[in-house]
Specification:
The complex is a heterodimer of chains A (81) and B (486). Chain A is an all-alpha fold and 81 residues long. Chain A contains four helices and no strands. Chain A is globular. The chains are: A mainly alpha (81), B alpha/beta (486). At the A-B interface, helix 2 of A face strand 5 of B.
Chain lengths: 81, 486
Amino acid sequence: MTEAEIYHDLTEIIRDVLMQDDLVLHPNLTAMEVEGWDSFKMIEIVMAIESKFGIKIKSQQLDSLEKVGDLVALIRVQNAS
Amino acid sequence: MLQPPAMLRRFTDQDQQNFAALSGDYNPIHMDELAARRTQAGACVVHGVQSLLWALEIAASTLPLSQLRAVEADFAQFLYLGEPAQLSIVKQNPAEARLELRVGETRIAQYRLLFGDKPEADALPSHPTTIDYKADALMPLALEWTEIAQAAGTVAFYRPHSDAVSTYPALCTAISAPRVSALLALTRLVGMASPGLHSTFHRISVKLTQAAPSNDSMLRFVTVESEPSLAVVSIAISAPGLCGTVKASRRAAPVKQPSLHALREHVAPNSFTGHIALVVGGSRGLGELAAKLLALAGAEPILTYANGAEEAQAVAEDIRQAGGRAQTMALNLLEPLAPQLDALPDIPSSMYFFATPRISTRHSGFYSADLYGIFTRFYVEAFHDLCQALSRRTPQRLQIFYPSTVFAGQPTKNMAEYAMAKAAGEVLAANMARFLPRLEIESVRLPRMATDQTAGMIAQELEPAPEHLAPIIQRVEQRAAASRNA
C-alpha cells in the first residue's frame, strides 16, 4: 500500500471513531490536538486499523507513537511484512 | 434559530428519578450516590440516552426530524448531576445535522442526525436467547464477561408508548412514539440487561427503518463483537421502526481491598499496641488498607469518612470481628475542622492523610485551573488545616504520613493538575515538618495502586498496595513509639 492509500483509509477510520467527518490528518498531528481522541478512542482506532489493514499492533508499539506520521509508518511496515 | 435558554440544562436528581421511571434503567451509577462513588464516574451521572432524547426533543422544533433516517450518538464523557450542559447545533444541511453537548469547553456527547428516506430494516443475526429481560424487572443483571460477550435475547419496554408521548411530545410526533420507546429501551438494555450492572454506554448508531412501528413492545438484541482487553461489546439491536448497533463496556467492579486475613503476612502482630492512628479517608481504598494494617499491628485506627459512613463502619466492624480495635468518625475537610475534631474519640499519635476528591481526568486541554483548585483544596489546604488543628490537640509530637504520587516526578497525560497539587502538598509537608517542631511528616511518592480511583477502562499494571503501605506504617508508628517514650 502507498502512504497516500494508508492516509486515505486511516482518515476514514479516525473520522468514523471520533465522529468528525471534517478531520484532516497530517504527519505531525498528535492525539492531544484532536478533541475527543483519548486513550479509549485510541484503542477503538487501533482495533479498526487491525481489522482494516489485517495487521496486529502490540501495546508496546502503541506507547512509542507520538504523532499520526508514526502511526502511518507503523502500519506501512506491518502491512509490508 | 433556537433560543439559548432551552439549550442549557442542569439535570437534577428528580430528572434521574423521572427518567428511570420512564425507561426502566435504574442502574445505580445514575441513582445511588454511594454506589456511584465506587465506580469510575465517582458520582451519579446522567443517563446518556436521557441527554440524547432531551436534545432530540429540542431539535424537533427546529430540525426536520420527521425525515430522520439515522441517529449516531457518542457519549464521550460522563455528565454529572447539576452541571450546566449546553446543547448546540454545530452543523446543519439538508442531509445532516450535528449537535454537541458541552460542559464548559469539554464535549460530553455529540449527536449526528441523518435525514432522507427511511431504509429497510437489517435482519438481526440469529443467536440462542440468553437473556429475556421482562417488563417488570427492576434489578440490573450482574453478568460475567463471558456471558456479556455471548448475550442475546429480548428487553421488554418498561412503560407504554403513551408515557413517552407525555415526556417527549414533539419527538414522538416527529418520529413516532414506538421509536422513542425503542430508544428508551436502549438504555434499559445496556444499564440493566447486558452489560448490565457494571456497564458504561459509549455509542448508539441506529437507523429509523421503513417498518411501520407496531405495538410490539420488545427490543431484540445480539452481541455481535466483543473485545476482552477493553471489555467492550457491540450489540446489534432491532425494534419496531429501529435497528442498528450500540457499543458499551463492562466497567471494572468496585475494587475490594485485601481482607485482614490476607494482610497478616505484612505486619508484625501487636507491634504497636496502644497506638491511636487517625486514618483520614479510611472508608475505602488506601485508607481502608492502612486502617487494616494498623489494626493488625495492634494499633487502634480511627477511620474518618466524608460520605461513606456505612463503608467506614463496615471496615471497622471487620477489624473488630478479627479481634482488633477500630473506631469511625465523620470528618468533612471542606468544613471548619476544629469543631469536628471535638468528636475525636481519642487523641491520635499519628495521622495518615488519604482524603481525596474524585480524581477526574476529564479534560479539554492541558491544564484546568478549576481542577487544580479542587485538588489543592484537599491535598494542600485541607492537609495544612488538619495538621494544624490536630497539633493543637496532641500533647506529644504528631507523626504524619502524606501520600504523594509518582506522577509528581513524571509527566503523564491528563494528570497534570493532580500531580501539581500533590507536588505542592509535598513542599508544604516539608516546610511544616521543618518549621513546626511538633509535626513529623513523611511524604512518599506512591505508584499507581489498585483502588476505585485507578480502576479505569483500560487494563493497566497496578502495584500491590500492601507491599508499599506496610513499611511506611512501620516507620511512622516506630517514630510514634519513640515520641511516646521520649
